[in-house]
Each structure stands twice: as C-alpha cells, then as structure tokens.
Backbone:
C-alpha cells in the first residue's frame, strides 16, 4: 500500500542554519501529490506545502520542497531557520490525508 517515511524525532538546528527534513514515499499512483504539514505547539496542523508533477518545487514562507519521482522523495528545506520554526512537521501522501479525514 501507500506509505511515507520521514525524518524521525526532534531535529535541532541552530538559528540561521539550513534545515532539511527528509521524506520518501511509496505509492502506485503515477502522479502523486505530496504534502508537508506543520504543527506548532497547542495548534492544529496546517498545510505548509503541496507538491505534484505540475509543481515539483513548491515554496512557502521560506520553505521549499522538491518532489523527485526517480527516488520517490519530497524533502523539505529552509535556508535560515528561526526560533518560530520550532514545530512538528509531517509529510503525507494525498491518500494518507484522505484516510485521516475520513476517520475523524
């Protein structure tokens, strides 16, 4: 079935440094949609980026992700992180999000 694997556990980065969060996926979908969500403390997850074959390098608020179909990856980067970027980050496939919404 469909699945994603991402950087596990807390990531500690010095302010102003480059942050990279890795995400790889498996899906039978030939044109997948990949998502990065961010969840700040005591807040609901929010959509940060959405990548697809038509938009393989989305960017938002200084974050950029690159969808590379050849190695099934959708890594997230921010060049100069700030203290306010401290949060939990989730990588997801469209199907994963759909299943989560259906069950809530």
Residues:
């Amino acid at each position: 079935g469909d699945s994603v694997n991402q950087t596990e556990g807390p990531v500690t980065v010095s302010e102003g440094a480059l942050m990279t969060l890795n995400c790889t996926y498996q899906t039978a979908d030939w044109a997948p949609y990949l998502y990065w969500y961010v969840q700040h403390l005591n807040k609901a997850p929010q959509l940060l980026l959405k990548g697809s074959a038509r938009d393989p390098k989305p960017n938002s608020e200084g974050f950029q992700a690159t969808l590379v179909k050849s190695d099934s990856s959708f890594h997230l980067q921010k060049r100069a992180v700030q203290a306010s970027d401290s949060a939990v980050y989730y990588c997801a496939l469209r199907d994963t999000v759909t299943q989560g919404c259906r069950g809530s």
